[in-house]
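Mods, move this if it's the wrong board.
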Amino acid sequence: MFPARDQQTPLPATTLQKTLKLVVRQRGLAKDASIPTLRHSSATHLFERGVSWRVIQALLGHKNPSTTARDTPLTTNTFDVVQATINALMADLSPLWGTGMPEGADVLRYDGPASQERFGADLLPSHRRAMDDLIHCRTEALGGHLWPCDHCGQEHDADHSCRHRRGPPCHHHDTEVWLAARRQELRPVPSLPVVLTLPQALHELVRRHHTDLYDLWLRAAAQALIKLAMAPPYVGGLLGVLCLLHTWTRTLTSHPPVHCLVPAGGVSADRTDWRPARTSSLVPVHALAKRLRGLFLDLVRQERPELIMPEVVWTQGWVVYCKPAVQGTEKVLPYLGRYIHRIALTNPRLLSIDHGQVCFRYQDAQDQRWKTLTWPAHECIRRFLPHVLPPGFHKVRDDGLWRPSHRPLLHQRQLCLAGHAAAPPPTAPEPTPPATEAWGPPSERVNPVHPVVRACWSSCVPCPDANGGHHERPRGLPAGSLLAGRHTSCGRVQAPGVPIAGEPS
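Not the wrong board. Structure tokens:
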């Protein structure tokens, strides 16, 4: 990898180390650099210059090509080129797809009614409700709206979504709104990701009694962080904890880790000082794992004393991840946002549904390679339904300094840290634009005229029959009151002011 002047023998390791330390000191690089860092960076530059992947593998001395792929980071330019190539290929293939791409609702439509009969009374009402909603999502059963176009003179229909929190095409706008609100709360303090996991011996027990144990698991995770951080050796103040429950693996097995986002500091007990956290880590992971185990098992004994815990949970170590965000808070927050309304099996992962056999892809956690699995439709449904959470269960929770009762204190601390004296005045909500006429037959539970279901379309949808214009589909409005998105060639929206059918003008 680093030949000497004769181009035959490699440079001595001591020479490389001294040279690297000198360059890091001269350049003022804050990140620690070592010989492996230099090797991987050199491999990246060789790949950028078009050197064969096999040559880079031989220079690095790797036996497995996957090791070379893992240890060779790609630059932003390479990612842009790859993304542009993939987009070009997808654009060429999209006319051939039509509506033939499989969706999660197609799996339920294929074997959903048979699965309901097979499970019978054992099927939970929440699971039956989820199946019915996903089957009818974006169909005429839930009604829709007409989109008039003043450029081509035609009207286009748009079916309503089911708005179920396990619906694959729903809640994109809700996720964006949630991320925007969290970004305001996180400023100007950096935040740290914390991941807390249950041992394998408790996965099945928690899945069978998920109605109660999911709640206890989230409470134990938040309290373990808050109580341990209150100790003076660590933070010595009240933390803000954002907890998010994630219940599945890439192969749809039960695995309920809690992902947390914690600011790097807390408010002192007298609510006067801000106590910054340590730069290395928030709290010791071994102490956090022991406190987490004790709190969760104590809560289970109090709330569900009839449950018998396996003896191995007392001797097996609980895995806890707590390190500074390498890529920054702006990268960690979108990572959490993907799981707010994400489902266990998304539509892009589905490859085909053929004669009752569902084929989907997943990324192996060991070698980071994409692989495929093929299951019968009823087996896919059986693995999907346990990840439908109970009605009214909140998978995202704010605790500690982010509790609603502590929001004034949080806002005060943010202003002090940011150097402001007073809070900015609250902005007035935007007026709700007029709506268009609803169409389609009403559902048994969702009335297209009644404001129950909101629209979750993309912000800009092109008109299929007009050149240069587009429909503007609004976000956050009731399902029975979508805008009549009249488009013009310049992209402006003209609201015609047609009242909702069945409501006063």
